[in-house]
Amino acid sequence: MKLDGRRESSNVEDRRRMSGGTATGLGLGGVLIVGIITLLMGGDLGDVVQNVSNSGGIGGQTTEMTREFTAEEEALAKFSRQILASTEDVWSAYFKAKGLGAYRNPTLVLYTDATATACGTGQAAMGPFYCSSDQKLYIDLSFFSSMKKQLGADGDFAYAYVIAHEVGHHVQNVLGILGQAHQQMARMNKTDSNRMSVRIELQADFFAGVWAHYEKASFGSLEKGDLEEAIRCASVIGDDYLQKKAQGYAVEESFTHGTAAQRMKWLKKGIDTGDIEQGDTFSLRDSQL
């Protein structure tokens, strides 16, 4: 991506010097995989913490660290602020053009290992996530290195897609979609709740694609191969791919994010159309997703 001269968002909390524990035993890559697989198998935040702990993962108390960031870390932090700024510009303009009211900007929290959120303790093992209760998205920047090493997903636009996906959840929240879906999930059994989760995640992929559509049209920042990077990333974070990689087989009933094919489909649909009206993943049959 060409981002030279682009503004950086000021809606960022940098907590990287506040450590909520040190990754030990497994190493962060191993911790990440344990966390992802626990969530994919239907576990919740408590299960992630327990499984990581049992595997020799994260431990220790929150402490303030005195450290200098590497050039790579600082570059990723700047990149993240620029991508967040782009989502602010794109979604604010889109909401205004479509008469959707004012778009409320989310806050990006950069942290190391673990941090407090309004949704409970966030762990690097969970990967990037969005908390609707405080309207913040949380990222441990080392996730991007783990993407490359553990999943083979690399490239600046692949990283941008990850951020845009979490912002997609914020868009769902602003539009009232996320709250309604969560209310329905609270009344469902585990299997049906997982199916609803898939629809939430696929729509967030679609919204990430809509952002990419207007980022390209408005700023011309996408270069040859950028879209392919994002689609490749979507393919390796599908539930089926991750479960097969971890255990050799996939359990469809436990899917919470969608298959590789589904994630690529909805991301690409958002990129191609740029129209959120075409991103209703909730009224379709499972076979149509």
Secondary structure layout:
Blueprint: E1 12-19, E2 22-23, H1 27-40, H2 45-54, E3 58-59, E4 63-64, H3 71-97, E5 107-112, E6 114-117, E7 120-123, E8 129-131, E9 136-139, H4 142-151, H5 156-174, H6 177-186, H7 190-219, H8 226-236, H9 239-247, H10 260-273
Parallel strand pairs: 1-5, 5-9
Antiparallel strand pairs: 1-4, 2-3, 6-7, 8-9
Helix pairs in contact: 1-2, 1-4, 1-9, 3-5, 3-7, 5-7, 5-8, 6-7, 7-10, 8-10
Mean pLDDT score, rounded?
A: 83
- Distance N to C terminus: 30 Å
Spatial strand arrangement across the major sheet: 4-1-5-9-8
Q: Number of DSSP helices?
A: 10
According to DSSP, the number of beta strands is 9
**Sheet having the most strands:** 5 strands, mixed
Strand-residue proportion: 5-15%
- Extract low-pLDDT stretches: 21-31, 39-60
Query: What is the domain total for the residues?
Result: 1
Order of helices and strands: EEHHEEHEEEEEHHHHHHH
Question: What share of residues is helical?
Answer: 40-55%
Shape from CA axes?
A: globular
Gyration radius (Cα, Å) is 18 Å
* Structural class computed from helices and strand pairing: alpha/beta
Describe the protein:
This protein is of the alpha/beta class. The chain has one domain. It has helices at 27-40, 45-54, 71-97, 142-151, 156-174, 177-186, 190-219, 226-236, 239-247, 260-273; strands spanning 12-19, 22-23, 58-59, 63-64, 107-112, 114-117, 120-123, 129-131, 136-139. The strands form three sheets. The chain has a five-stranded mixed sheet, covered by helices on one side. The chain has a two-stranded antiparallel ribbon with strand order 2-3. A two-stranded antiparallel sheet has the order 6-7. Strand 6 and strand 7 form a beta hairpin. The two termini are 30 Å apart.
